Amino acid sequence: MRITGLGHASVFIETAAGSVLADPWVNPAYFGSWFPFPDNSRLDWDRFGQADYLFVSHLHRDHFDPEHLRKHVAKKATVLLPDFPTSELEDALREVGFTSFVRPRSGEVVSLDGLDVLIQSLTSPTDGPIGDSSLWLSDGEQTVLNQNDARPADLEAFRALGPVDGYLVQFSGAIWFPMVYELPARAKQAMGLSKRERQFDRTLRYIEELDARFVFPTAGPPCFLDEELWGFNDVFGDESNIFPDQAVYLSWLESKGHDEARLLLPGTVAALAEDGCPTVHPWDPADVYGSNEAKAAYLRSMQSRRMPEVDALRAAWPHPEIDVLAALKDWFAPLLAEADHIAGGIDGGVHFVAEDAERGDVDILIDFVSREVREYAGEKVRYRFRTRRAYLEQLIAEHEIDWVNSLFLSCRFTAHRIGPYNEFVYIFFKCLSEERLNYAEGWFAEQNAAEASETVTLPGAKGAKWHVQRRCPHLKADLTRFASIEDTGRNGDVLTCQMHGWKWRLSDGKCLTSVGHDLRCAPAGSPVPGEPVLPVEHTPADGLRGQHEMEESVD
User: Fold this and answer.
1) 513-536 per-position pLDDT tens digit
2) In 231-343, which ranges are E strands?
3) Which one of 7, 257, 324, 521 is CB 3.0 to 4.6 Å from 36, fit for a cystine?
4) Is the peptide bond before 38 cis (omega within 30 degrees of 0)?
5) CA-CA distance, 105 to 52, in Å (whole number)?
6) pTM for the full model?
7) What's the rounded Cα separation, in Å, for the pair 94 and 16?
8) Is the peptide bond before 527 cis (omega within 30 degrees of 0)?
């Protein structure tokens, strides 16, 4: 078995029973903001496109690149399709030209002419664009788990299948937080440092749980070639930057006693079947990773080659013929009428400012109480976004049903909020179709009706012990592994779930991070609703840190 890195989350896996091309991405994504780093546009994509199987983990545009798939990937390939609740991914791949699909049930192994395949599909409204997935492969000789940027609550389903030889996992950021927020620089720096530490810790926890023979940090970081976004590149020695590169993470892993990780450049070949998993790089990594200056020079060269692609896209974004406010009223009105859980979770207004110095700004209020879109008239709101009018016009012209997977990931906006992060805001903007919105509403209704009942005991601060529900109310992470409890003073003992950084005050179970999602908990010895307490007391995994700011997460 061999793994060839193709940039970002893209890999070409050669097995004894066929080849698999995963998540090929080359073209600029998210309003021309993101590019693969290092540059992968000069690879022999026609050769890699002759793969026997194609796997696209989800619809984020740094994983699903329809233009590239149409031009360079043979349509004879059999698509390994995640078992998502909607047909959007299959529909998009059929539109590109693929006709052969295998859709295993999530978590079940299927055998395809000697290649065993398992796809674990994550299907909550917060998982990618209504779905993310991991791919496990075994040809009877070696086994690979390609987790890309999925975040399963645990890896037990994969560990149960036996040892893993190669593990591909995300380590870098893939989000707009905290850079776009209208906050003092010092506050954003503290939040960025916290998020970067949490990214590294989370990936380390996955690595140590799976205990694979070799690890390949992948699925990031992107690079930003547009001058107005240049500061997001990690070339300034800033440890609060959430987009550290592969070399930075490999060095950090070594400091934690791990030497099993390997660098995958675009074109690197890793011989997984050979002793020590030797890698052959297409060029000297020091040419890019040797210093911040070398990396910046590489990016400037890449900028000169590839920015014309963005300029061509940019010319098509303005649509002066579109009445933005009227179009959004017509589009959002039926959705707001059905968004009972989402509207209740937001319980207020969202103010959108579409700016244009020449044609004038458009001020929009999306009122989740009265369920209407209207012109903003100075109302007090907790959530505000500012972006360019041309971007909203393009979203309307394309009828883009997922603004998270377009505008927000572009980082071409600023945001302001009063109070804690509210996931319902972003869920609404990724569910701008009746199908998606009804799925999200049904998911929330089901979760509220079927609250996790199993209870465990966790050590608190100063010798205290707490009974808590085992599964995190946010996305069901196992709190015996991901919980950290610290005495915060004013709020007393606070539990942090390190999967996404969400917090709960244990004195009353109130979620301190977002609206709703209260935690069932009580001091040890007191009754807690649900199943009896497990007899085993649990200590959360080593290396978890306490108080962190909440990250906004779609990756």
Assistant:
1) 877 788 999 998 887 655 444 434
2) 269-271, 279-280
3) 7
4) yes
5) 21
6) 0.84
7) 28
8) no
CA angle 10/12/17 to nearest 5° reads 145
CA 325 from centre of chain = 30
Pull the structure tokens for residue 228.
Answer: 């107005």
Q: Are 65 and 56 in contact (CB under 8 A)?
A: no
CB burial string 530-551: b at 16+ within 10 A, e below? eeebeeeebebbeebeeebbbb
Peptide bond into 244 cis (omega under 30): no
- Report in angstroms the alpha-carbon separations of 247 from 42, 148, 217: 22, 17, 9
Per DSSP, the three-state class of 485 is: strand
Separation of alpha carbons 546 and 421, rounded Å:
18
Handedness of CA 354, 359, 360, 365 (dihedral sign): negative
Q: What is the pLDDT of residues 189-221, one digit of tens each?
A: 999 999 999 999 999 999 999 999 999 999 999
Q: Which residues of the chain have pLDDT under 50?
A: 450-452, 531-551, 554-555
| Cβ pair 511, 504 in contact under 8 A | yes
- Cα 77 to Cα 170: distance, rounded to the nearest angstrom: 26
* DSSP bridge partners of 138: 116, 143
With a CB cutoff of 8 Å and minimum separation 6, the contacts of 493 are: 460, 461, 464, 466, 485, 486, 487, 505, 506, 507
How far, in Å, CA of 161 to CA of 167, rounded? 14
The helix/strand/coil state of 270 is strand
Find the distance separating the first CA and the last CA of the chain, reported in whole Å. 28
Instruction: Report the length, in residues, of the chain.
Output: 555
Q: What is the DSSP letter of 264?
A: -
Q: What is the pLDDT of residue 528?
A: 66
Tokens 């989402």 label which residue?
342
- The DSSP-derived string for 397-435 is HHT-S-SIIIIIHHT-SEEEESSS--HHHHHHHT--SHH
